[in-house]
Amino acid sequence: MTPALETQMLVKRFGGLIVTNEVSLSVRPGARHALIGPNGAGKTTLINLLTGALTPSGGRILLSGEDITATTPFERVRRGIARTFQINQLFNDLTPLESVMLAVGERLGHGNRLFRPLAADRAVSEEAAALLERFRLADVMCLPTRDLPYGKQRLLEIALAIALEPKVLLLDEPAAGVPEEDRHEVLAIVRALPADVTVLLIEHDMDLVFSFADRISVLAAGRLFAEGTVEEISGDPEVKAIYLGDAA
Amino acid sequence: MSTPHSQIAAAFLRRKAAWSPLEAGLWGLALAAAFLFPSQQLLLSEIAILALFALSLDLIVGYAGILSLGHAAFFGIGAYTAGLFSLHVSAEPLAGLAASAVVAGLLGLATSFLVLRGSDLTRLMTTFGVSMLLAEGANQAAWLTGGADGLSGILLGPIAGTFDFDLWGRTGYLYSLAVLFILLLVARRIVHSPFGLSLKAIKRNSRRAAMLGIAPNRRIVVIYTISALYAGMAGALLTQTTSFVSPDVLAFHRSADVLLVLVLGGVGYLYGGIIGAVIFTLLRAWLSVVTPQYWMFWIGLILVALVVIGRDRLDPARAIALVRSRLLGRPAAKPVPLSEDGR
Amino acid sequence: MLTILFDGIAYGMLLFVLACGLAVTLGLMNFVNLAHGAFAMAGGYVTVVMMNRYGLSFYWCLPAAFLAAALLGAALEVTLYRRLYAAPHLDQVLFSIGLVFMAVAGIDYFMGGQQQLISLPPELSGRFSLFGVGIGRYRLFIIILCALLTIALQLTLTRTRIGSQLRAAVDDGRVARGLGINVSRIFVLTFALGSGLAGLGGALGVELLGLDPNFPLKYLIYFMIVVTIGGTSSITGPFLAALLLGVADVAGKYYLPSLGAFIIYAVMIAFLILRPHGLFTREGGK
User: Fold this and answer.
1) Interface partners of C (3+ CB pairs, < 8 Å)?
2) Which of B89-93, C11-15, C259-263 comes out lowest in average pLDDT?
3) DSSP string, A125-165
């Protein structure tokens, strides 16, 4: 089966510093794949390479078997890669409704409509409202995003990505910074993501990784260090040494 | 299959794009001015034209976040086009207006590619450079533009063959006001469209916008072209209401003035240009009576004071939002910072 | 031909002295200061007043112009500029345009709108011929003086603590403060130095560039070209850009007078399209 997302010998250098070192990662369609590794292992760089925010120094990136290494970030989004950000990147003075409508509208190609009022785009506003309801954001959807509590903002981050109906979703520490009492809400949403969406989860929180992932890759110092099922990885003494020991 | 939530959403969106009584009142006042101040029609035309020019700038500065130091390029080319059109093609003003819009729009389209790349600084430089290039060109091409003396002897026929320009300038004012009104309606439509929403997203956080699949460059090209088209029409109105064009329409101070006008009125809500134009023109009329020749000093002082005191503290948009919330019991919108992008 | 080259070099060096302060505020401090030319104009008018009204020697006017512009710069930095380092570029643009307008109208009010003329000391006027190349004495004086200034500036920036402190302060003000660097003092000094050099350039330029109230607007584009094309990673970039611009402008005006300033604008736009980060910088970042 063609992997949903694949990297082949991916390399990124900043000057003399090699941050991503010949990473060959393969994520099968529909997977719940987690990418873990200590701080500075190059996880965020890898995401930036996958989404096109950074250009690799070498290697290839394939989406469902198609080479997307040279495409622009927005082209990749159209082809089905979406991501969330570790630190919220939201439009603070737009409302969640407008933000999600933006994502839905772009997916449907409505963004070039100059003279049609947003309010008349019922298909988009209904879909956005339904999505916001699913993400338990309906009651705050008409407030400026900056007035939302942090946990709700994290949910909006994910909702924006889901609104694009991606084939592959890159979740960059979705629960980071969320207060304990709102955490379960975020985790429930993450667990309830549609089964046909391939998810690559970058996460520090081992509980979340072990309960969510069916496959785990370990990144250390820019290299793919180990890969396997949850049992294999959690039982691997070397992984424990470099990672779990470090986290404990 | 409307759920309650989607109904709430639709109602919210409609309300956001709805006309407020304040807006209607403003237009009523503008129309009434044509009859209330018969001796001030030329000044009123000047305000309407400047307002349109500032509105065109607001489209790129306020909605797309592109700084320009050379917006006079489009104003000027529109002014010259209207003048040449009436001299060589047809004296009918609406046709001249359309010709100016097309020419300025084409120039905007051609130069929009210069503002796609780079930082605020390179954008300032390229826009500035383009306008200086045009100003120099207008000066040199005396066979076409009349050089430093400008184009004179421009005679205009009645608008649409019906409305003659009168001596007091009332036709001129009503004509300018009508063009401003129609173009504001169009701009309103654009701002409240999905396209307008995507512009706001690009301006606020272009990285995130790209991650929603928005290709920023095409959107910027489109809005920059529309903005140029608007500015060109403003220039055409100036030529048609004054029957004269000189290289002054391309001068640097015009680009600077229009920035000031926009900032005086407030950036990013369409009416800033109109309010700013009223304040600026009245202020200039008054200052040039008090200290003829040196009013530039006071304009400079206002600019400095405006920035040092803080634009958002003096922002009419905020004042209006406050009034509106008092009147209608809606929450006041917070002022929008120019750019939330890091750089 | 060689005379044109020589004149162009003199012109370019003068432009460099005028613009190098802007290279620092714009390039390093990321402040869009469109009022830079006003400091040059201040230096020019100090010279004119001292020479024509009080009959003082030209040589005294040069340091006086430097000092006056530097003091003016320092005063404005402390009272106004300082508040706007972190402000959006739009604010900086508006603010500095406002300053220019005030300077232009103010000078017009006090000094009148006419061109100002000075008579140079006899030993600096006239030309002499060297290997068949006509050399203006004053231009030679400018080249020598500006070359010395450039070397001194380069040494100050690379060899002294001020230079490294400035870089640290610009890179990260908080860290620099943590290292015990007095960031605001460094900024005042730098700003004053840049303004002072502009003032000196303005004084030297009265004879070459002319001086009237519109000076800051007329030459703004030249300063900005020097900075944007030269880049900001060192002072060598702006220096070479200024020389190039000087030679190109003089040659353009000599060979293609009908095109006027056309060429300069066209070349600048072309450069900005091809090398948006400057001619002499290596492609850094995105």
Assistant:
1) B
2) C259-263
3) HHHHHHHHHHTT-GGGTTS-GGGS-HHHHHHHHHHHHHHT-
